[in-house]
Amino acid sequence: MGDRYNIFSQMEHLQSKYIGTGHSDTTKWEWLTNQHRDTYSSLIGHYDMLNFIAVAENESKARVRFNMLEKLIQPCGPPPERPEDQ
């Protein structure tokens, strides 16, 4: 029983420390938004991947970076409507 409690306390610690790990109340929209933001920030941070995307889209590196930074705001669109009872 002690091991099980220890595992749950470690999971709770990770979930409170890192937003992207989610928790029991994470919605599908929140999970996808975190995944998209992680992907865009990783692509922006890796110079070679940014170059690859710029060549593939036939755009300048600055334009591709700017577009990705804009997509970080709401990568999956606006949040869905929540029911009134919550």
From TrEMBL:
GO terms for biological process: mRNA splicing, via spliceosome. Transmembrane segments: none annotated. GO terms for cellular component: precatalytic spliceosome; U2 snRNP. Its main location: nucleus. Keywords: mRNA processing, mRNA splicing, Nucleus, Spliceosome. The lineage of its organism: Eukaryota, Metazoa, Echinodermata, Eleutherozoa, Echinozoa. It is found in: Nucleus. This is Splicing factor 3B subunit 5. Belongs to the SF3B5 family.
